[in-house]
Prior knowledge:
By secondary structure, the chain is mainly beta. The longest helix is centred in the N-terminal third of the chain and has 22 residues, at 2-23. Strands 16-17-18-19-23 form a 5-stranded mixed sheet, with no helix packed on it. A 4-stranded antiparallel sheet has the order 1-35-34-33, with no helix packed on it. Strands 2-3-4-5 form a 4-stranded antiparallel sheet, with no helix packed on it. Strand 12 (206-208) and strand 13 form a beta hairpin. The chain has a single domain, classed as Methylamine Dehydrogenase, Chain H (7 Propeller), CATH 2.130.10.10. It is 5% helix and 39% strand. The two termini are 28 Å apart.
Amino acid sequence: MKSRIYTAGVLIAIVTSLFCQQTGRQKGSTNWPSFRGPNASGIADGYATPVQWNLPEGENIRWKTEIPGLAHSSPVIWGDRLYITTAVSSNANQEMKVGLYGDIAPVEDESVHAFRVYCLNRNSGKIIWERTAHEGVPKVKRHPKSTHANSTPATDGEHVVAFFGSEGLYCYDREGTLLWKKDFGVLDAAFFIVPSAQWGFGSSPVIYNNSVIVQCDVMEGSFLGAFDLESGDEIWRVSRDDVPTWGTPTVYSGNGSAQVIVNGWRHAGGYDAATGEEIWRLSGGGDIPVPTPVVAGGLIFLNSAHGMMSPIYAIRPDARGDISLGEKDTANAAIVWSIRRGGAYMQTPLIYNGYLYNLRGNGYLSCFEANTGRPVYQEKVGDRSSFSASGVAADGKLYFPGEQGDIFVVKEGPDFELLANNPMGDICMATPAISEGVLYFRTQHYVAAVGK
Length: 452
């Protein structure tokens, strides 16, 4: 019997291997180490992923685990472990206002918060450990649509780095032992035109080459820095002359060097990953930059929207110096193509199989040829939905979480096709993670694993 089972297993493996070779499918990585996965791509191909599910009714739901508090941080995954952060208030009536509106006043809340890190078993959802990194009244206020735990943690399998903005940067080992922490003081990410409109910190850490890289664009003392992963010691730190931003840095490596790419208004750009030295800079865009830079197909894509401009830029990675465009220009030696209006305010774009998908907060999804910028289509996703979380992609499908808890599944490619609208029954402001064909969603009250 054992030999028959073994033989059957070998045959299945051979058939699967041949199928993957013939179709070009490759088994994807199990790991989703930081915001939007490897290099912020948002892509995890190689496994079949679900089209339809229903969280309230349990359809295609592997597990769901309740997580207390308010947080928009995304799950990160390494091996069989999933990590998530939250901020738990002593005030049980926490305000969370979603939808499209223009209020800029922050939430007035002087309650004590516990800033926590959770480790879950990826396969079962069971909580393995939880740690309280800090406890106290938050040092800055938050937007009604924001939380005090917006930053997604990062992991390399041996370390877990959690960033709570003004409440500090913390590094744990995989068993939950605190290795080091850093206090950067008050990191006030406010609307620079109305400084009283404190909205909460949002940039997430990334791990690269045994260092932790953080972007802290705030009202005073903005900087980009790299810190030793083992000790927390500063490797380098450079000042940034910019208004508050909420994007996460992306590391691009190629041609024997690596650069840290950051979004910004006065100063988007690239920095040498080893020294922090500026390589190139770009000014002009939305004056409240949130989307994270994405590298795909040999280009760097920057996206922003607010104020006078809402551009998308496609930039060559060998850019040097000031590459800012003239008032009427859409391209130059460093910028392959751009559009002045049409970028997203909150969402990081998806670049998948040659197309760039840009979803705006009102649900309009624009598709472009990624290498040329040629418009392909613009369609409405969700008649009454608003969007803040960024989309992810796998198995030929695009997944876009709506704030009200509907997850829209769109077929990839030049012809728009809405495949499904799946209810989560809960507010969904966090970008999902994907591992081995399973989607992991963070809603207001739960982390849930979606897959057959």
